[in-house]
Amino acid sequence: MLVLGVESSCDETSVAIVRNGKEVLANAIYTQIDIHKIFGGVVPEVASREHVKKMIYVFEQALMDAKVTPKEIDLVAVTTTPGLIGSLLVGINAAKAFALAHNIPCVDVNHIDGHIYANYIESDFHFPLLALVVSGGHTELVLMKEHYQFEILGQTLDDAVGEAYDKVGRVMGLDYPAGMYVDQLAQTGKPSYKLPFVYLDKDSYNFSFSGLKSAVLNIINKCNMKNEPINVADLAASFQSSVVTVLVDKTIKAAQTYKVKQIVVAGGVAANQGLRKSLTDAVNKLENVKLTFPKMKYCTDNAAMIAVAGYFKYRFENDLKKC
Fold first, then answer.
1. At what angle do helices 232-257 and 161-171 cross, to 10 degrees?
2. What is the C-alpha separation between 313 and 129, in angstroms, rounded?
3. How far is CA 125 from CA 18, 184, 292, 300, in A?
C-alpha cells in the first residue's frame, strides 16, 4: 500500500510517500525557521501564508522523488489536529483536493500519533509499548497495547517540555529555536545552580514545568539586580538536569509498572542529546526492554510519520473518511 502523507500543523510544509507503513520513498519538507526567526517564534498568519505558497511544490517534489504517479497512491493521510488552525486548514484542503481529484480514500491523523509512529520507521513495535511524547506542545506518557490504541497515563499540567525549553532559552538570550541551543549549551556546562525537580505526588505520571521555568527566571533576575555574572552553560545544564531526570524517572517507573517490552520517544525533544543519553543509560539497566528513538530527521514535524500513522489507522481502526 502506498500512502501519501500531508503535514502542515505548524511551520513545516511536508508531503511524503511511504510504502506499507515502513519504507519511506519520499519525504519533501519546506521549513519556515529562517522566516520566523525574525520574530523570535512562529507567527500563525505568516505560517499559513507560507504553507499556501509551498504546498503544491512539496506535492510535486514528493511524487517526483518517489517516482510514482497519483494513480498509484492507495491512501491519503493528513494531519487534522492539533496545531495552528490556519496552517492545518491549508494541508487539509490540499489533501482533500488531491484525494477527490484522484478518487483516493483519505484518513485524518492526529499529529501526536504521527510522532509516535515515526519510531516504526526505525523499528517494529513490540507490545505493550510505552511512548514518551516530548514536543513543543505536548508532554505525555502513552501506553499502547496494540496498534493504534492509545491510553494516556500522564501529561503536562501546564507548559509542554519543548515550550519550557524555548521560553528558558529566550530569557537566557538564545536565538530561535532556543530549545536546541539550551541542549547544546548544557553539554558544555555543569548543573551547579539549584533548581527544583518537580515530581508532583509520588504516584502521578503527570508533569509540570512552569515552576521550573519560573525558578530559572528568578535566578536570572537576581543575578541581574546584583550585577552578578551568569554562567549560561551551567544554567542550561542545571535546567536540563531537572527536566531530564524527572522525564526519565517517570518513564522508567511506568515501564516497570506496566511491564512494557518497548519504550519509544516521540516529538521534537526526542532529538535532545541529554534526554537520549540519560534514558538510554536507564533503560540499559532494565531487562528485556527495547528503547527506540526516531532518526533526527523524523523527530521534527514531517509527513512521513503522518503517512505511517495513517497506514496503521486505516488497517487497525477502520475509521476511514471519504474526502
1. 170
2. 17
3. 17, 31, 9, 20
Q: What is the pLDDT of residues 101-118, one digit of tens each?
A: 999 999 999 999 999 999
Work out whether strand 106-110 and strand 75-81 pair parallel, antiparallel, or are unpaired: parallel
How many other CB atoms sit within 10 Å of the CB of residue 234? 17
9: three-class secondary structure by DSSP: coil
Q: What's 2's DSSP letter?
A: E
Does the structure show a pLDDT above 90 at 10? yes
Distance, CA of 128 to CA of 3 (rounded, Å): 26
Same structural domain for residues 172 and 210?
yes
Total structural domains within the chain = 2
The pTM (predicted TM-score) of the whole model is 0.94
Q: Which domain holds residue 146?
A: 124-293
Helix H or strand E segment including 252: helix 232-257
Who contacts 139 (Cβ-Cβ below 8 Å, separation ≥6)? 133, 155, 156, 160, 161, 162, 207, 209, 247
Report the relative pairing of strands 262-266 and 129-134 from DSSP bridges.
parallel
